[in-house]
Amino acid sequence: MTTQTEFDTTAVERGTIRVGVVDDEPMARSFVSKILGAAADVEVVAEGADGAEALELVRTKELDVLLLDLRMPRMDGLDTLRELRRQVRVPAVVVLTTFHADQAVATALRLGAKGFLLKHIEPAELVRAVRVAANGGAVLDPALTNDLMGHLATHHLDRIGAAAEVARLSARLRDVLRLVGMGRSNGEIAEELRLSDSTVRGYVSEILAATGCANRVTAAVLAQRAGLLD
Questions:
Q1: Of 154, 161, 193, 207, whose CB count within 10 A is highest?
Q2: By residue range, what is the domain housing residue 91?
Q3: What DSSP state is assigned to residue 55?
Q4: pTM for the whole structure
Q5: Strands lying side by side in the sheet with 115-118
Q6: Which of 129, 149, 169 is the endpoint of a domain?
Q7: What percentage of the chain has pLDDT greater than the value 90?
């Protein structure tokens, strides 16, 4: 099986972020598409009503970001993520949910989702989240983060365990992890710490390997759990 690769941020250098919106509710799709379509640098290129249509969009539309509902008929969001793991290159997938404490959200992150948002997110925050995801950042809805901790009850996400895990990192890696926890993209981290993008990518990979985090989003949760953002 081919594993999912890291999102290539060069895709957004063309100036427009290409987004797909997949939700079984037509009103929800229309609302999200209208908000994103009003942003000068975002284009909603396609919509879908279930996971099967999401997979087709990924294959044919060269998306930078896929906004994916979890609970849909025929093929739900989790099954979609499982299928996407078989692809060589996929867009940054951001989960949309209405549930504050949902085991499915934690599972989605383990399956490669780059973040999660509640559907009642403010319009400006939705646009910002798409930009962050397109640039390789973690997208974390604060209203979901605390509830998610219980579902991500691995050794490195327990509060005491998280602090101990982070304490093993070098000061530079802790600086990078803190900025990952704040939702910064690699480019933004590089600018703030005066490093090259490639150096930051290397640091992020080192953090994931050292802490056992599955992806950038769980690393961001780890940063929050360890108190780096306090």
A1: 207
A2: 9-149
A3: H
A4: 0.71
A5: 42-48, 17-22, 65-69, 92-97, 115-118, 139-140
A6: 149
A7: 45
